[in-house]
Design goal:
By secondary structure, this protein is α+β, with helices and mostly antiparallel strands. Strands 1, 2, 3, 4, 5, 6, 7, 8, 9 and 10 form a ten-stranded mixed beta sheet that branches. Strands 11, 12, 13, 14, 17, 18, 19, 20, 21 and 22 form a ten-stranded mixed beta sheet that branches. It has a two-stranded antiparallel ribbon with strand order 15-16. The radius of gyration is 36 Å and the shape is globular.
Length: 950
């Protein structure tokens, strides 16, 4: 065996090019596996770190904890760590523009709380004593109070209580209470003197501030808005944070909130641990919260009864719990590990074929050598071992380099991502090397090489001396398949004929080449679709916002035109994109719904005895310029006087197997371009209109409103709207999926339809401008100044909301996913390209003697070039004809599998990946064969024919 090892080693050294190409294939395959496992591990820990930075490093929070009870939490073995935040009280803010949020809510914590609560410091530092305070950024962007770091503020801090006038106000409302929409419904169950917290919205005259204490603070820092776990969007107080644990009010009205991080064991048994802390029945608490069991109404009533009597208020950090408690796997990380498993399978499949291809070419090249070894006494077992030994030698070199390269690639990708995302991401990405994951990658690499070599070893062992010397197995001819079509000779000449006959002669060799290209094409298409599907699933779950300024404009006593709002928006520099919209609601009788949406709509929106489906359409009316840009993006050129229907929606359906609601994407309607939809509305009931209900003889078919019925509430009318087409594209500001029908049209068309109609069509009383700008804070300041000046001449009210922080976080999140996703696509593409280069390049090298022979009998360079071009065309077309449909079919199957597992999505064919695949395959094959041809031209014909080795 030592002699065979020596022979294998010398062959590897003699055939350096083939050896290097094979090692490169092993390195790429191993590097990709190592990079994949490292990236998954890094992404996992990065998401955990991100959640901690955004929402805090805790699993459950318990409010209204006394100082004496704190010891019980500290001694709980299921709690790993905790921090406390004490509520001090509320202070009225002078000059606050947000009428529903007029307070500062002062809280106190220590170093541990500042570190673990997820507060994002953007300026200054955290408070270090009880005379210092940190304020939130949205105090300026939302409340329009511009405090600076270094300012001193005096707060009159007290306790919010239901006022004495609340009860009398409620009684005076009589039967109207709860229907008028006033604030009395907010405190109908509370008594005068009851304490109000952040979970109760502002009650205007229904509350008062008592037990006030004056305190002066120095502002030492500014943070982004605390997450909803600390400050809900309905909270009436901006979160101000000072240092300390004890409040300054004597009655300690708001108590202490303990934020507990469980141990791993405690997290696995979190329902049992939490129920014990709350003093609830453990089985009942677990059964209701894990959603696995259906409970009777009596059991649910018992649960609610126990929950109302618990000692503490309960909150939980859902995302962090879901991320750190992998079993049962759910949500984003379920998708992450499923993606990783499928990508690993694709990598292994591609790598096995790539490396197997190298060994197959090696066996074909050395077939005479194996025959000679067999003739001098080498056994089949020895020949098989020689091939396995070759694989082992290549693996010993390639695997360590591959693992190191994969880890290095993951490290570089993480660092690059940190550089790119440093402006938006609250926490740096974590580079994490998981030893078990690397061991797993190593085992996968060994298995890949083993299965790549085993087939070639068996083939080499079967070679007999006579077959090897005659070399009759590689080329087998049948007369009926050898005839060349006449058109090939007419188009490509003698070079084309030789090329066609050569492909027929070496059918097995070309089949290997085509299969190799097919696998690479399928891998690229499937991986691209899989990553785009994962990206889309995340977008469905988390939403996406493409604007950072929201302006609501409400006319008062008149109408403010779109042009006026557009001019105001564009008069300030820094606008990237915008639209101005107003939403109206119309109803449509028996719309042409898809069966699935029709069944859903009847179940959730229609009465049981209703025979006619009556759907409410949201009509989004845009300013003319924005509608033109939107229609162009949606692919419609002719939209004059027509509307665009958005035909993709998202509904929630009950999964009977899991007893949970899941999101599902569906097509809503069967409408197409040119169809007409009759929109219904109720006109005014004024006497002059009732007397003139007959249609005007001058009305046109397009704009005529048809009188359908008259009731006490008004006159029922319809108006026909023609569709320019249906689309999945949504306008700016409407990116989130929805289940209600949405139609988009321009203001000019909308006004023309109802120009001469005196009617009230129900709609939002305000217009909304969605704007994407460069510097949101500066733009908000400038726009508010401009709007205030406009109010001197035009009667309207407005509200500006700054979503810049949310948009940046979303952008960073999606960019993070994109970097990891497309990084994997690039690396998988590299291994596929290497496979093609290996197959074609080595194949051209093995045909050197054949090409030299053709040139020796008079084939010119022009004929030779035609032959190579025809071979490239045949290989490319045949591979793409097989590869593209196979890739589309597999991607569709993956979509169907995902739809069975969790969220249901509509299959969108990966057309971009298909186009890229076509271009890359044709150019790559032609380039490889052309370069090889140019190289072979310079070889000496006689020396090439005489040479037995590469």
């Amino acid at each position: 065996m030592n002699l065979m090892k020596t022979l294998v080693y010398k062959n590897l050294r003699l055939n350096k090019k083939r050896t290097i190409v094979t090692i490169v294939g092993i390195i790429l395959a191993t590097a990709l596996l190592a990079a994949l496992t490292t990236l998954v591990s890094s992404f996992y820990y990065s998401m955990i770190k991100y959640e901690k930075s955004q929402r805090g490093d805790y699993h459950y929070s318990f409010s209204n904890v006394s100082t004496q009870e704190l010891k019980d939490f500290e001694n709980n073995r299921s709690i790993e760590s905790l921090f406390e935040i004490t509520g001090i009280g509320y202070s009225k803010l002078d000059g606050c523009k947000n009428e529903d949020k007029p307070y500062a809510y002062v809280e106190a914590t220590d170093e541990n709380g500042f570190k673990k609560a997820g507060f994002d410091l953007i300026e200054g530092r955290m408070a270090q004593n009880d005379n210092e305070i940190v304020i939130p950024r949205h105090l300026k962007t939302n409340g329009r109070i511009d405090y600076k770091v270094g300012d001193e503020i005096t707060l009159n801090i007290g306790v919010r209580r239901v006022s004495e006038s609340a009860l009398s106000d409620e009684e005076s409302n009589g039967d109207n209470a709860g229907t008028s929409g006033d604030d009395s419904t907010q405190y109908a169950e509370k008594q005068p003197g009851d304490i109000l917290g952040q979970d109760t919205p502002y009650l205007n005259d229904g509350e008062e501030l008592t037990d006030t204490v004056s305190k002066t603070y120095k502002i030492v820092g500014m943070i982004e808005r605390p997450n909803y776990g600390f400050e809900d969007y309905s909270a009436c107080g901006y979160t101000f944070i000072t240092y300390g644990k004890q409040g300054i009010t004597e009655n300690d009205a708001y108590g202490m909130t303990v934020y507990a991080r469980y141990t791993q064991k405690g997290l696995r048994n979190r329902y049992e641990v939490t129920a014990a802390i709350l003093g609830m029945d453990k089985e009942l608490f677990e059964g209701v919260n894990d959603g696995k069991m259906a409970f009777s109404s009596q059991q649910m009533d018992e649960y609610l009864k126990q929950l109302s009597n618990v000692k503490y208020g309960l909150g939980q950090n859902d995302s962090l719990i879901r991320y750190e408690c992998l079993y049962p796997m759910d949500g984003l990380f379920k998708a992450l590990f499923v993606i990783a498993a499928i990508v690993a399978f694709i990598i292994i499949l591609t790598s096995v074929y790539c490396i197997k291809n190298s060994f197959s070419i090696s066996i074909t090249e050395k077939i005479r050598q194996y025959g000679m070894l067999s003739s001098i006494g080498a056994t089949k077992r020895q020949i098989r071992k020689s091939v396995k030994t070759e694989a082992a030698m290549l693996g010993i070199v390639g695997i360590p380099i591959g693992i190191g390269s994969g880890v290095l690639a993951a490290y570089v990708l993480t660092k690059v991502a940190n550089i790119i995302l440093s402006e938006w991401l609250g926490a740096a990405l974590v580079f994490n090397i998981s030893v078990p994951a690397l061991v797993f990658a190593l085992l996968l690499a060994v298995i890949t090489i083993y299965f790549s070599a085993i087939g070639s070893a068996r083939k080499a062992a079967k070679v007999t001396p006579l077959e090897a010397i005659r070399n009759t197995n590689e080329i087998k001819l049948k007369a009926e398949k050898f005839k060349t079509p006449r058109f090939i000779g007419r188009i490509w000449g003698i070079g084309g004929i030789v090329s066609y006959k050569n492909i027929k002669r070496n059918n097995r060799k070309y089949r290997t080449t085509i299969v190799s290209i097919v696998i690479c094409s399928v891998t690229f298409i499937v991986t691209s679709y899989f990553m785009s599907m994962a990206y889309h699933l995340v977008e469905m779950s988390y939403g996406k916002k493409n604007y950072n300024i929201d302006v609501n404009v409400t006319p008062e006593g008149g109408e403010i035109s779109n042009d006026t709002i557009v001019d105001a928006i564009n008069s300030i520099s820094g606008v990237k994109d915008y639209d101005v919209t107003k939403t109206y609601y119309f109803d449509v009788d028996d719309p042409d719904m898809t069966k699935e949406y029709g069944d859903y709509y009847k179940e959730y929106y229609m009465a049981d005895n209703s025979k006619v489906v009556n759907a409410v359409f949201d009509i989004v009316v845009m300013d003319d310029d924005s509608f033109g840009a939107y229609s162009k993006n949606a692919g419609f050129d002719d939209t004059d006087g027509k509307a665009i229907l958005i035909n993709r929606g998202q509904i929630s359906v009950l999964n009977e197997e899991t007893n949970k609601y899941t999101d599902k994407e569906i097509r809503l309607f069967n409408y197409k371009a040119g169809d007409t939809i009759s929109l219904g509305y109720t006109a005014d009931t004024r006497e002059d209109e009732v007397q003139n209900t007959e249609p005007d003889e001058n009305d046109t078919d397009e704009t005529a409103a048809d009188l359908s019925e008259q009731s006490d509430e008004g006159i029922r009318k319809t108006v026909d709207v023609t569709l320019a087409g249906v689309t999945d594209e949504r306008p700016l500001g409407y990116e989130q999926s929805f289940s209600s029908p949405v139609m988009v049209m321009d203001q000019k068309k909308f006004d023309s339809l109802w120009k001469d109609r005196k009617c009230d069509y129900e709609g939002r009383p305000y217009k909304v401008a969605y704007v994407n700008v460069e510097d949101a804070d500066k733009y908000q300041d400038d726009l508010e100044t401009l709007m205030s000046d406009m109010q001197k001449t035009v009667s309207f009210s407005y509200n500006i909301t700054n979503y810049d922080a949310i948009m940046k976080n979303e952008k960073a999140f999606y960019m993070l996913i994109g970097i990891f996703a497309y990084g994997l696509i690039i690396v998988i593409s590299l291994i596929g390209i290497t496979n093609i280069i290996n197959t074609l390049g080595t194949g051209m090298e093995l045909r050197k003697r054949e090409f030299a022979t053709l040139r020796s009998i008079g084939m010119t360079d022009k004929q030779f070039a035609k032959m190579i071009r025809l071979e490239s065309l045949f290989i490319s077309v045949k591979a793409l004809i097989i590869g593209i449909p196979a890739g589309l079919i597999i991607s569709y199957i993956i979509c169907r599998i995902e739809n069975r597992l969790d969220t249901v999505i509509i299959y969108d064919p990966p057309t971009g990946a298909v186009c890229a695949c076509i271009i890359v395959v044709i150019l790559l094959i032609y380039a490889i064969m052309f370069l090889s041809m140019e190289k072979l031209k310079h070889n000496n014909i006689i020396d090439t024919i005489k040479n037995e080795n590469l």
